[in-house]
Each structure stands twice: as structure tokens, then as C-alpha cells.
Automatic annotation (TrEMBL):
UniProt-listed InterPro entries: Annexin, Annexin_repeat, Annexin_repeat_CS, Annexin_sf
Native source organism of the sequence: Panicum virgatum
Entry-linked PANTHER family: ANNEXIN, ANNEXIN B11
The protein, known as: Annexin
SMART domains given in the database record: ANX (SM00335)
């Protein structure tokens, strides 16, 4: 009707964090993820943690659509950008995670679960050094329900938390990818509640993270994230956002999150 893109209008009318959040919000979910990823994998704004979080916290079907959107919007394959900006085991796990179509249902096979728990034990705690290949294989080929079961089987069999094992056996962005997959397999809402808390804790606010999480999760699991946030930190998420932000930016985020618990 008006012969101009809404995004351009928003760009010229708004500024700062409010503008950033709004420009992300007007896209469809796959477009939001693709945009955040593209920015996180671009020269001057490189943020490998954000890229890893977006990839490792998404379902296989979300990743599928997001890859198509990425190619359509930016004229390049997501895999190409990952390959260009990451390295080593971190690169291997991200490429496998976006490339392998995983099962999304709740059923698991207990025999394979036990087998995987044993394999992870042999690949990590039992030996000197770590066999990263085994970690990559299990974490990228298995469904979330399966990984959550492997985690509790591991705890049961070896009296140690898989999360602790990952922290002591791996490091850096590779460890961060494994932990993100594990935590999202067990409870994505709890994972994001933690990410939000970290973004608002201490001096200053990490607005980039705040915008990314609020805008990309609002239509997916925000009610659950709010419940987990309140359970863990005894304070409503809206209240935290209210005290950490201001102006139209605050109004906008709160309208997405919704007031109350």
C-alpha cells in the first residue's frame, strides 16, 4: 500500500535496542533465527556463543526451515558460514547438528540408551584424554528425549552427572555446544530462564541476549520460561526486565513477555 518496506520505516523511525528488537520481531520465527545467526557469523559482530545457542537449542524441523530461510535471505548456505567462522570439534558438532535429521518424538529405546551411556563413559571419564567423536555422534544423532534418558542413565550407572563430565572433559565453544544440547534436551525453558538471568545479573545488561531470547522464544515457550524463572529466582521475569530496561524498549519487551508470572 505504501510502496516501502515496513522494516525500512521502522529503521528510520526507531533507534537503539527498541529498533533492534522490533526489526527482529516483524520476521517469521525462521527468519528471526536466520537473521540472528547471520549477524553472529559475520565479521564485525562475530558471536559464536549466540550462534551455537541458536543452533543447539532448536528442533530438527526448526533447523530445517531456518536453513532454507537462511539461503533464501542471504544467498549462502548456513553450513558455508559455519565452516568459514568456526573450527575444530566446535565446527564438527555444529555442522552435524544442522545436517542430521533427528527424531522428535518422546519414545526412547532403553537398550540403546544404556549403550550410549557406556560409550560416553568410555569416551570420557574412563580414558586419558577424550574421544570427542563419540560425544559428537551421540549428541547430534539422537533425539532430545533420548539424550535426556542417556543423561539420567549415566547418573544412575556412574554416579556422576553428564553435565559435570562435559565440563571436565571438554572446553570452550565445543563444551558450550554439548551443554546447550544437553540442557535443551532436558528442559529448554529452564535453559533459557538461566540465559535471561545471566543477561540481567550484575552490572549492566546484556541487551543483545535479552532481545535474542525474548523475541525468538515468545511464540515458542515463553510461558514455560516465565514459570522456570520464577521457580528458580523467586522473582517474575517481567519484574526483572522492568528493572533492567527503560522507555519504549522496556514497554515493547514487556508486551511480548506479558506481565505477571
Amino acid at each position: 500500500m505504501y510502496h516501502e518496506e515496513l522494516s525500512q520505516r521502522i529503521s528510520s523511525e526507531l533507534s537503539g535496542h527498541h529498533k533492534k528488537a522490533m526489526l527482529l520481531w516483524i520476521l517469521d520465527p525462521a527468519g528471526r533465527d536466520a537473521t540472528v545467526l547471520r549477524e553472529a557469523l559475520s565479521g564485525d559482530t562475530m558471536d559464536l556463543r549466540a550462534a551455537t545457542e541458536i543452533i543447539c537449542s532448536r528442533t530438527p524441523s526448526q533447523l530445517q526451515i531456518m536453513k532454507q530461510t537462511y539461503l533464501a535471505r542471504f544467498g549462502t548456505y548456513l553450513e558455508h558460514d559455519i565452516g568459514h567462522h568456526t573450527s575444530g570439534d566446535h565446527q564438527k558438532i555444529l555442522l552435524a547438528y544442522v545436517g542430521i535429521p533427528r527424531y522428535e518424538g518422546p519414545e526412547v529405546d532403553p537398550t540403546i540408551v544404556t549403550h550410549d551411556a557406556k560409550d560416553l563413559y568410555k569416551a570420557g571419564e574412563k580414558r586419558l584424554g577424550t574421544d570427542e567423536k563419540t560425544f559428537i555422534r551421540i549428541f547430534t544423532e539422537r533425539s532430545w528425549a533420548h539424550i535426556a534418558s542417556v543423561s539420567s542413565a549415566y547418573h544412575h550407572m556412574y554416579d556422576r552427572k553428564l553435565e559435570k563430565v562435559i565440563k571436565s572433559e571438554t572446553s570452550g565453544n565445543f563444551a558450550f555446544a554439548l551443554l546447550t544440547i544437553l540442557r535443551c534436551a532436558e528442559n529448554p525453558a529452564k535453559y533459557f530462564a538461566k540465559v535471561l538471568r545471566k543477561a540481567m545479573k550484575g552490572l549492566g545488561t546484556d541487551d543483545k541476549t535479552l532481545i535474542r531470547v525474548v523475541v525468538t522464544r515468545t511464540e515458542i515457550d515463553m510461558q514455560y520460561i516465565k514459570a522456570e524463572y520464577f521457580k528458580k529466582y523467586k522473582k517474575p521475569l517481567a519484574e526483572a526486565i522492568n528493572s533492567e530496561t527503560s522507555g519504549n524498549y522496556r514497554t515493547f519487551l514487556l508486551s511480548l513477555v506479558g506481565h505477571g508470572h
